[in-house]
Write a structure and sequence with these properties.
The chain is 51% helix and 12% strand. The chain has 98 residues and is an alpha+beta fold. It has two domains: 4-42, YefM-like fold (3-Layer(aba) Sandwich); 46-88, no CATH class.
Length: 98
């Protein structure tokens, strides 16, 4: 599968065509705004498939961690609240916009 790469200005001019290619031709397009800001335009069907694969992988990792814990290979920590969990990882509390 080939992936076209376009700058954001050019992609904006061709957006309808790019969406059709993504949906009907399953051809993704890389879109760059700058060196650090890049995205890929894909069909919703392909996006949903990627999400499904991600969920399956994460579920597999959780199952493996639980099995490792049961075998005594992994120590798990229990948090009393979501705020404690977020604080431990240095994340803002749920609902905070910080």
């Amino acid at each position: 599968m080939t992936t076209d790469s376009l700058g954001i200005v050019e992609a904006r001019k061709k957006l309808g065509v790019l969406v059709s290619r993504a949906v009907h031709g399953h051809r993704p397009t890389r879109i760059s705004r700058s060196e650090d800001e890049r995205a890929v335009l894909i069909s919703e069907e392909e996006y949903e498939e990627l999400l499904r694969f991600r969920r399956e992988r994460e579920a597999s990792q959780v199952r493996e961690a639980m099995a490792a814990h049961e075998r005594g290979e992994l120590r798990m920590h229990r948090y009393e609240s979501r705020d404690d969990l977020h604080a431990d990882f240095g994340l803002p509390a749920p609902g905070d916009r910080s």
